[in-house]
Amino acid sequence: MKQRILVTGGTGFIGSHTVVELQNSGYEVIIVDNLSNSKADAVDHIEQITGIRPAFEQVDCCDLEGMDAVFAKYPGIQGIIHFAASKAVGESVQKPLLYYRNNLVSLINILELMPKHGVKGIIFSSSCTVYGQPDVLPVTEEAPIKKAESPYGNTKQINEEIVRDTVASGAPISAVLLRYFNPIGAHPTALIGELPNGVPQNLIPFLTQTAIGIREKLSVFGDDYDTPDGSCIRDYIYVVDLAKAHVIAMQRILDGKQKEKVEVFNVGTGRGLSVLELIHAFEESTGVKLNYQITGRRAGDIVKVWADPTLANNELGWKAETPIEDTLRSAWKWQVHLRETGVQ
Ligand code: WQD
């Protein structure tokens, strides 16, 4: 009997890649997504990749009754991976209440339903945003949590506390908090990838849309920071490597191998790259010239952050293996696929 895993936000960027890896590892996957920032045809593309069609329920995680009905419809769900959340830093500043309601209520509903339906464990999609601007780099899980720079980042911090407090209250569940750095790239088949609604906020989709001609020019938000070339530094991790970390973490939970009931892992490559280095790496690895200009800084940007992934490497036996050149080529292949299939 295959172990059943519920993936909220499973038609989204990281969610869809994680569903593929879960299926490749023999799990039965049920996707719950409200399609507010993704498309239902991601289910078709996942099936094209793995040959297995995941169950899909269009439900909003903030709908407690709707979520309860999903658990009742699919008895025996062993674990949950909770991706569903609003995730645009800038938008969260404009619409804080939307972010607090959506990101907090969705998690609260899931935590409330888990004991009722015998679900053992949850993996929560957290973010390096919780560290703010670390004092020491690379940043470890022991680094202090700093005051969030945005309501989005604050919801990640609050959600981590909600998970900890729920487990500490004696709820019969355990958790792994995965703190992502900057997930980028697309599946090697180019059947799934990052497909933001409207004008992309994140660097890579804007970069590849510029490279293919959808956008006229990429703005580099500042080159006067305290970094070697003046542009901001991030830890860009291949989305498939990130997805694989979720499968390993889920197996750890289901095998009862956790050392604590709540564990935290940085999921990054351990290597920092500046915006300008990334642009040059893209041009070199794809042969595509990029039209970009240096503009003013973006409010709220962290200057430099990259992971110390030692804990995940040692405890999970997981490591981000993919070279940045391959990752950037996968992002470009996805953008070309979107053009060839008339999506963008
Ligand atoms: C990366 C770098 C920008 C766009 C956020 C969240 C994080 C995660 C990923 C959800 C920065 C620069 C960007 C552009 C640019 N969220 N940039 N021109 O802000 O590091 O992380 O998104 O999963 O939790 O905090 O990602 O891709 O927006 O920016 O110069 O057009 O690229 O200034 O230095 P960020 P990003």
Can you offer a commentary on this structure?
40% of the residues lie in helices and 17% in strands. A seven-stranded parallel sheet has the order 3-2-1-4-5-6-11, with helices on both faces. A two-stranded parallel sheet has the order 7-10. It is α/β, with parallel strands linked by helices. The model has no long low-confidence stretch (mean pLDDT 97). The longest helix has 21 residues. Bound molecules: UDP-4-deoxy-4-formamido-beta-L-arabinopyranose (WQD). UDP-4-deoxy-4-formamido-beta-L-arabinopyranose binds next to α7 and β8.
Task: Itemize the secondary structure elements and their pairings.
Layout: E1 4-8, H1 13-24, E2 28-32, H2 41-50, E3 55-57, H3 64-73, E4 77-82, H4 89-94, H5 96-116, E5 121-127, H6 151-168, E6 174-180, E7 182-184, H7 203-212, E8 218-221, E9 233-234, E10 236-238, H8 239-254, E11 262-267, E12 273-274, H9 275-286, E13 292-295, H10 310-316, H11 324-340
Parallel strand pairs: 1-2, 1-4, 2-3, 4-5, 5-6, 6-11, 7-10, 8-13
Antiparallel strand pairs: 9-12
Helix pairs in contact: 1-2, 1-8, 3-5, 5-6, 7-11, 9-11
This protein binds UDP-4-deoxy-4-formamido-beta-L-arabinopyranose.
Q: Which percent band covers the strand fraction?
A: 15-25%
- How many DSSP E strands? 13
The radius of gyration over CA amounts to 19 Å
Give the biggest beta sheet. Answer: 7 strands, parallel
Provide the structure class: alpha/beta
Ligand species: UDP-4-deoxy-4-formamido-beta-L-arabinopyranose
Weakly predicted, low-confidence segments: none
* Order of H and E elements: EHEHEHEHHEHEEHEEEHEEHEHH
Mean pLDDT: 97
- How far is it from the N-terminal to the C-terminal residue, by CA? 41 Å
Q: Quick one: overall form?
A: globular
Strand numbers in spatial order across the main sheet: 3-2-1-4-5-6-11
